[in-house]
Write a structure and sequence with these properties.
Number of domains: 1
CATH class: Alpha Beta
Order of helices and strands: HEHEHEH
Number of strands: 3
Strand order of the largest sheet: 1-2-3
Radius of gyration: 15 Å
Structural class: alpha/beta
Length: about 90
């Protein structure tokens, strides 16, 4: 078995264990490349792990477009949480 295959199967096994032992499991994604790898594994393996991201209002357009790409490619809607504008202004 190749090094890549070993790492891939190990990562999938870890994600499966997390989903099983820490249900309901939730993944906080920055939508960066490394998080998109985990997103692909979670969704491709149909793991019961919810994915969300934080929209601080300062995300780059390319980053926001990743949410739409995930919906398009996987049929999965990443949950988006935004801060309450009034609470931020008061802070």
């Amino acid at each position: 078995m190749s090094e890549f295959t070993l790492r891939l199967t190990g990562t999938i096994a870890t994600l499966e264990r997390i989903a099983r032992e820490h249900a309901p499991a939730v993944f906080a994604s920055s939508l960066a490349a490394e998080d998109m790898v985990l997103t692909d594994l979670i969704l491709s393996e149909d793991l019961p792990i919810t994915i969300f991201t934080l929209d601080t209002g300062r995300l780059h357009a390319e980053t926001r477009q990743m949410v739409a790409r995930v919906q398009e490619c996987y049929g999965y809607g990443i949950k988006i949480y935004r801060p309450d504008d009034a609470a931020v202004a008061a802070y």
